[in-house]
Amino acid sequence: MKILEAGKKARRMFNFIHKGHNTADEMEDNLSSVALDFNVVRIWQKYIDSICLHGMKALIIDRSPIANSLGFTNGDLDIITEEQNFEPWLLTQVRYAYKAVFREQWNAQINTWDPLSRVAVISEIGDTDFADDWPFDGNPLTKWAYTLGNNAYIHGGVKRGKTNFALRLAEYFMAEDWVVVSNIPLSEKVPNYHYTPTLSELLREICQARLAGKHVLILLDEGAIFWIKMDTILSQNKAMHKIVLTLGKLTSTLIYVGHRQKDIPSIVVWTAVASFEKISHKTVFADIDEGIRIRSKTFTSVPATKLQYNPSKVQNFEMDLEIDGLFKHMSQIAEEDNQWEKMLEYLADHEGELKNKSEGKKKKEAAQLLKQLNPDLTERDIAGLVHVSQPSAHNYISERKSNQDR
């Protein structure tokens, strides 16, 4: 019974330290349950309570010893968001300082246990770190993607080097003969790398690569910005779930790049077997789920990508397909039923459908504005000015007049 309880506690502590988010109460309670040094608990209770009460920004401005102890400076004021300000776990420096203390106290407690209980801990959670001699350029950074349907995500604060690291991963995959499709434009053409600023282009490159027998990696950068744009067309969750499932059915692998971990779409988190948090330009914390255990490691000398790109340019990605129609089409196709050929056929019939609707809306608005500014213009005049047929110009002007009459 004692061995079983030791194993259960080890699993609870392991799950806690690897959770995406923990409340202030959970941080204090779990540290209290493992710490042998009461002074450590007291210090961290003060840290956590002060952040929750005053906010980290106020502590920095007031030059609080707490902010100094945790490594915060005035330069962090522009980086900390309002949501992070009162949430200790969402503040990267706080979270990693806390994890370091937690692991130190946890290991100290385990060392006081009897040998059988320590064996129970090892058998329950296994070795949670990569071997010390595991090279950063090694295969574990890519092997997680070889099982179909696996995805990953990269997150971290502003200007921490997320895009640079994403392109570094792309280099590793291309070295293993993968094709990479991405909304990150490069300064020069690179074999097996395809810039795809629209959904239809991305899907076409995926299908052509898979038909050629190549594995495909998708890098979607600035995910949060893109999905905010999408809210004007479809709800975020509905769109993202359907797109990720469609990409999975095309047997491709997605790496989603965003800022805060809690902003990563749930469908990406559910299907992810790897996550990478950029702490700084050269430091990344990696979690790779190997099924039996999660391997974690902090890398402090991450090499920069050799791919040339503009780091100050915001990435773009346009939706030129109706998501509902696309998902309905793919849901009717089995994965072994020539799905890539059928997707290419669908694209030939539907490419640019949202763009065409958008252009039609702009022409309608232009026609109505012209009539408003110059009532003497005829329908024929307006048709020529906005490049539409005369019947279309008539419909646009009639719609405006109908709206005015109401």
Count of domain modules = 3
Give the number of DSSP strands. Answer: 8
Strand order of the largest sheet: 3-2-4-5-1-6-7-8
Helix content: 40-55%
Please state roughly what percent of the residues sit in beta strands, choosing from under 5%, 5-15%, 15-25%, 25-35%, 35-45% or over 45%: 5-15%
CATH class descriptor of the largest domain: Alpha Beta
- Describe the sheet with the most strands: 8 strands, mixed
Features:
406 residues; alpha/beta; Rossmann fold; 3 domains; eight-stranded mixed beta sheet; 19 helices; 53% helix
Describe it.
It is a single chain. The protein is α/β, with parallel strands linked by helices and 406 residues long. The protein folds into three domains: 2-125, no CATH class; 140-350, Rossmann fold (3-Layer(aba) Sandwich), CATH 3.40.50.300; 353-405. The chain has helices spanning 2-17, 24-34, 38-54, 56-61, 65-69, 82-85, 92-110, 115-125, 140-143, 162-175, 199-211, 223-230, 236-249, 266-271, 323-331, 339-350, 353-373, 379-386, 390-405, and strands spanning 151-156, 179-182, 193-195, 216-220, 253-257, 272-278, 284-289, 294-299. It has an eight-stranded mixed beta sheet, sandwiched between helices. The longest helix is centred in the C-terminal third of the chain and has 21 residues, at 353-373. The radius of gyration is 27 Å and the shape is globular. The model is unreliable at 125-137 and 228-237 (pLDDT under 50).
Fold topology:
Layout lengths: L1 H16 L6 H11 L3 H17 L1 H6 L3 H5 L12 H4 L6 H19 L4 H11 L14 H4 L7 E6 L5 H14 L3 E4 L10 E3 L3 H13 L4 E5 L2 H8 L5 H14 L3 E5 L8 H6 E7 L5 E6 L4 E6 L23 H9 L7 H12 L2 H21 L5 H8 L3 H16 L1
Parallel strand pairs: 1-5, 1-6, 2-3, 2-4, 4-5
Antiparallel strand pairs: 6-7, 7-8
